[in-house]
Every structure is written in structure tokens, then in C-alpha cells.
Amino acid sequence: MSVPLSEATAPAASAGPGRGARLLRLLSDPMGALGILLVLAVVFGAIFADVLTQYSPTKLAPRDRFLPPDAAHLLGTDQLGRDLFTRVLHGARIALGVALVAASASFAGGLILGMIAGYGPRWLDSLLLLLFDALRSFPTVMLALALVTLAGPSLSAVVLVVVLATLPGYARVVRAQTMSLKGAEFVLAARALGAPARRILPVHIMPNIIGPLLILASMDIPVVITIEAGMSFLGLGVRPPTPSWGSILNDGFSFIRESPWPAIAGGLPIVIATLGFTFLGETLRDQFDPRLRKDA
Amino acid sequence: MLAYAVKRTGLAVVITAVALVMLISVIQFIPGDPAAVLLGPLATPELRESFRVEMGLDQPTIVQIARFFGRVVTGDLGTDVLTHRPVALTVLEQMPFTLALIAAGIGWAALLGIPLGCFAAVRRGSLADRVIAVLSVSMIAVPSFVVAIYSLLFFSVKLGWFPTIGAGEPGDRIDQLHHLVLPSLAVGLGWVGYLARMVRASMLEVLTENHIRMARAFGLRERTITFRYALKLAVIPTVVLLGIGVGHMISGAVFAEIVFARPGVGRLIYDAVITRNYPVVIGGVMITTAFYVLCTLVADLVAAWLDPRVRSAL
């Protein structure tokens, strides 16, 4: 991706219509509106999980096992009689929590390493690029399997896998941007005035990169959710009885012949969340920075 | 072209080497004693110590890495803890199943993705185009393991159209294909979306080019133009995309193999994680990673061969 991501010869914030107009345009796009709706539903469910249902996500009720959906149990119950809707809502907390923590860590790491690679000496750039490429050469699930074998399953393992899998992507974009900004007049001017790199990078370069990077990050949220759910599905992430969408889906898979509902209930929130965040991210990108398109 | 091929191959070798070093040094940085984690809580101190010596974990990092590389170069990836067979053999035995799965996944992607993208490009801006766009994005977004579970639930358990477990009778091609349909759909569905988008975008680009305008001026039928002239060119960039796609498909294959209880490398490594069969995990991850690097290399070389502009990019 050698094309500059934004027209970044001047601070980027000033260009384009106001925020209200942008939001309106976002809502007028059917895909964007649907994305916002789905994302809001997930966020709402996560925040009000305790209020929205009367059940506990972990308390067992063996008599109620494998109930089909009805008014009392909106998504039915699982093999231990736990209300699946309640577990799905609480699972949203795990999914969004991990997404937030892991995506921020990856974002920050990619930003710093990318700027260092783009601004620093050539040898450091080559070294970092090589590391990024090597990291990207692991299929994500393989990375997860290898790490968890050595460190044991945990939420921090999930976060680590997400960071290792997504950081190189950010870093490469930041690096390319930093390189194209390095020769911009306002950067050259700051350098001529004697500003050191530790001032130029955060003050002059970072503000021009962060916009496109945020859009990229919003598009990575579904990827992060997928990694968390996938690892929990494989038993490499969240440990039972903590509800994660992935582990609910795995329970449902184990008992798929007894009842289809736990499997459906485990997959549904993953579909809703990944679609919602993807629709939103795609629309944001098309409206704010179409050149970020990977395949166009 | 030769200079590019040599440079690109060299880069691939270096990247693989660095990735392997990373994998090995991870053992050093992981908090806690790997011997304790791998052997479980019931292992005696003597057992842990002998395991450490056996695995070379008592040596300094540099020595471990050097030894490890020495062994890898000669094709020795260690010994399976449970069966005492060479790891490389165990992994490579399972490879054909995973390769078949990935190939069939690519088959789905090409079979559905190329026509969808082509159709969307020809009907640009129409309702069909927009529906295909949303559909493509959705196929990309939904994780392969959800597709696997839902298709298992619906087509196998509910409707009974497809088998739920295994890879089919050895030697019976029809039966094997029958077992391959759903798992490969799970692996390939996301790539149907990617391919549709890619083909649409590059079709739109190609359709504005001079030779297409020329063909129109000559009064060739629109269908001939689309399929004989435009599509041929528009498919080229998808080759590179598929090279990268193989990496994602390897990840997807792990899930598909587990959900449909198929043999394969993904399942082998997963089972090895569960049984703490550490050499098989590391060996399997190494082989699949090397395979992925190889696929991207081949894709880049093919792209460079088809399009000289790519060669100057390295």
C-alpha cells in the first residue's frame, strides 16, 4: 500500500463536513444504519446484562436442561439448565472487554513501532519489517495453539494472540504514512528548528496518522471478537463457567444431537457482533477514507 | 524476473527462519516452567528435570536455538511423545487431508466468488450489485467456525444431507467428496466474499481499458467482451489474494476438522495441545507456517510473472 492514506500535508482534522453531517450520512446508508443498530444492541446487552434478565449466567438448574426457547428463556437453556440468553448477554461483556483491551494495546503498539520504523534509521526499519513479516507468517490459530500449549489457556493469552496477530497490520500502515510525512514541509521545518524525534513524532506526525488508523482499528474489532470466540471455542481462552460466546458455542456443539438451541444461541451473538462492527467499519471507511480499501 | 524470484525466495527463507526463532524463543519468555506446564501438576521433580534435559531446556537460549536449527535443516522436528515416531512424519501424513480441504475451499471461493463479482461489476450500481456487496461483506465477517457449526446443524443433523463426521471411506472418491462439501464450505465461504469483491473491483478497472473499448467499437457482443476479454484479466489479482487466503484457510481448517471430526493437520495439532504433546504442536505449527510462507511466495511469483509491474515493488 504505497498510496498515502490521507492527504496529510496539513493537520487532517480540518477537512470535510461537520460531525453532525457525517453522522447523518452514516445513518442514511442502510448498511451503516444496520451496523450501528447491531453494535448498539450488543453494547446495550453487555452494559445491562444484569438488569435485562433475572437469571444467573453460571448457576446450575439441572431440571431445566435443554429447554427450547419460550417467553421465560428467550434462547432456551443449555446442558446444565442455565438460561442461554443470560449467558449470551454476559458473554458480550467478555467479547467487548477483550476487543477493547486487545485492540487498544495492538493499536498503541502498532502506532509506536510503526513510527519508529518509518522515522528511524534504515537498519531499524528493515529489522522491524522483518519481525512484522515473520509474525504475520503464522496462521492466527496456529499462533494461538502454540502459545496456549506453553502458557496455558487464559484471557491474557487471548489478548496476547490478538496483539501479535493484528499489530503488524497497524505498524505497516503507520510506517508507510510516517515515511511519506517525513519529507513534508512542516516536518522538515520542525526539524530545521531543531525539534528532536521524540517531539516530531507525537506532535507533528501522530495527529496525521491517527484518523485513518482509528478506522482501521474499527474494522479490526470483528477480527478480535472472532479470535476471542474462536479461542474460547477451542478451550484456549476463557475458562468455564465464565460465559464466552465461543465456549457457549462449544457447549452447544458437544450436545448438538440433544438440542440445537445451545449451538444456535452461541453462534447468534457472534454473527450479530461481527456483522454489526463490519458494516459499521466498512461504512466509516468508505465515507472517511475510501483509499483504505484493501481490495479496490 | 529471475532477479525478483531470487530476492523474493530469499526473503521467504529469512522470514521463515525468523518466525522459527520467534517460536523457539517464546519458550524462554513465557513465565513459569514449561516443563511444569507441559507435564501437568502431577509430574515429579525428577520427571520434570529429565524432561528438561531431554528437550534441551537446560541449555542457554542461544544453544537451544542453534541446536534446534541444526535439527530442522536436516528435517528432524523431534519425536512424538506418545507414539515415539518422528514428528515430521506424523504431520506430513495428515497434510493431504488438510490440503484437500483447503483446495476444496478455494474451489468454493472460485465457483461462487468469481461469478458473483463478475455479475456485480457488469450490473454496477444496480440493486443486485448492492445486495452482492452486502452479502460479500457478511461472508467475510462471519467466522468460519460459526459457519461450520450452523451448516453441520442444518444440513447434517437436521436435514441429513451430508455426513457429520470423518473424511469418508479411503479409496471411495464420491464418499470422500461428499464428506468434503460442508467442511470446505466453512473454510471457503469467507473467500467467496473476498473473491467477489476483488473480481468486481478489478473487472470495473479492466472494463474501462482501451482494448475493451476497442472490442465494443468493433461491435462484439457484451457477453463475449465480459467473459473472453475482461474476466481473463480481472482474475489475475485474485491469485495474490488466494496466496494470503491460504493462511486464513489453514486457521479455518483447524475448526472445520474439529467440528466435522476430520483427520488433518489442524486436528492433529489441536489434539496434541490437549494431550500436551509439545513436539507435535511445535512441529505442526512450524510446518503449517512454512507452508503458508511458501503459498504467499508462489502467489507473488505468479503475480510477478503475469504482471511485470509487481517485480519492481520489492
Description:
The complex is a heterodimer of chains A (296) and B (314). Chain A has 296 residues and is mainly alpha-helical. Chain A has helices at 19-28, 30-47, 49-52, 84-119, 122-136, 140-151, 155-182, 185-192, 197-233, 245-254, 261-288. The N and C termini of chain A lie close together (11 Å). By secondary structure, chain B is mostly helical. Chain B is built from 13 helices and no strands. In chain B, helix 5 (87-122) crosses helix 11. Chain B is globular. At the A-B interface, helix 5, helix 6, helix 9, helix 10 and helix 11 of A face helix 1, helix 2, helix 6, helix 7 and helix 8 of B.
Quick structural overview:
The complex is a heterodimer of chains A (296) and B (314). Chain A is an all-alpha fold.
Topology summary:
The complex is a heterodimer of chains A (296) and B (314).
Chain A: H1 19-28, H2 30-47, H3 49-52, H4 84-119, H5 122-136, H6 140-151, H7 155-182, H8 185-192, H9 197-233, H10 245-254, H11 261-288
Helix pairs in contact in A: 2-4, 2-11, 4-5, 4-7, 4-9, 4-11, 5-7, 6-7, 7-9, 8-9, 9-10, 9-11, 10-11
Chain B: H1 2-29, H2 34-39, H3 45-55, H4 61-73, H5 87-122, H6 127-141, H7 144-158, H8 173-207, H9 210-217, H10 222-234, H11 236-259, H12 265-274, H13 278-306
Helix pairs in contact in B: 1-4, 1-13, 5-6, 5-8, 5-11, 5-13, 6-8, 7-8, 7-11, 8-10, 8-11, 9-10, 11-12, 11-13, 12-13
